[in-house]
Design goal:
- By secondary structure, this protein is an all-alpha fold.
- It has a single domain, classed as Four Helix Bundle (Hemerythrin (Met), subunit A).
- 74% of the residues lie in helices and 2% in strands.
- The protein is built from nine helices and two strands, in the order αααααβααβαα.
- Strands 1-2 form a two-stranded antiparallel ribbon.
- Helix 2 runs antiparallel to helix 6, helix 6 runs antiparallel to helix 9 and helix 8 packs antiparallel against helix 9.
- The longest helix has 32 residues.
Length: 243
């Protein structure tokens, strides 16, 4: 039974992602966000459970990526699509035909999010040893970044009080999508044990995440991911300086 437990948790991840898509498209954005957060927890727990129980399997490895493709590949694309649709709908009538034509270019370009997520997950599956670092922004981190922005925008129509600019958000979408497939070392947040030694950056990020979320609410998830990216890049720069 213990060998099937990680796969069961993975299926819960898949279920949360699937229902999140339905809720998001039906306008129940709060529940969609809650389900993405639940999917992220299950994504952490399935790998952790497999390591603790030593219940590894090729089926589990493939199933994990297939579930992640839905929860962390399709879901963020849906969130971004809804976000851009709202931005274009809120344009004044005098915006002109340029923005109407730009709308289709932007919406079609969202396809790179699930496409690059698939590439990222495929590369992850064929890596021999994941070690301390992943190469490229992990798909769950990418999804959580957009989940925080989605929550802020749907709640207030702004990002921490600042109106969203279409071109700025389009640039951010492209940068974050390419970050998933670029070979930039990103710190792994997977725990093999809970001792401080070997987990210092993980615990530091968790501490900062709690502080940020207490100060900003769920919208601060995007800030947490930015801190994660900065810590990973800082660790990389320090390692190169020492070497």
């Amino acid at each position: 039974m213990k060998h099937h437990l990680p796969n069961l948790i993975t299926l819960l991840n898949l279920a949360c992602g699937t229902v999140a898509i339905v809720f998001a498209l039906e306008g129940q954005w709060q529940w969609a966000v809650y389900l993405v957060l639940a999917a992220s927890v299950f994504d952490f727990l399935d790998g952790f459970t497999a390591r603790m129980l030593k219940a590894y399997s090729n089926t589990g490895k493939q199933l994990d990526s297939l579930a992640d493709m839905v929860s962390f590949g399709v879901v963020p694309a849906v969130f971004i699509y809804i976000l851009f649709k709202e931005l274009f709908l809120n344009l004044p009538d005098e915006a002109g035909t340029f923005y109407r034509q730009l709308q289709w270019v932007v919406l079609v370009s969202i396809f790179i999010v699930p496409a690059f997520s698939a590439i990222r997950l495929a590369r992850f599956n064929i890596e021999e040893d994941h070690g301390t670092f992943f190469y490229g922004l992990p798909t769950p981190a990418h999804t959580l970044f957009w989940t925080g922005i989605f929550w802020q925008f749907m709640k207030s129509g702004t990002l921490f009080g600042t109106p969203l600019n279409i071109f700025f958000m389009w640039a951010i979408m492209l940068i974050m999508a390419f970050h998933m497939i670029l070979p930039v070392p990103m710190y792994s947040l997977k725990f093999d044990h809970f001792r401080l030694r070997g987990n210092l950056i993980r615990y530091l990020l968790l501490f900062l995440a709690v502080v940020i979320l207490l100060l900003t609410g769920l919208g601060g998830i995007s800030l947490v991911i930015l801190v994660y990216i900065l810590l990973s890049l800082l660790n990389l720069l320090l390692a190169r300086k020492v070497s």
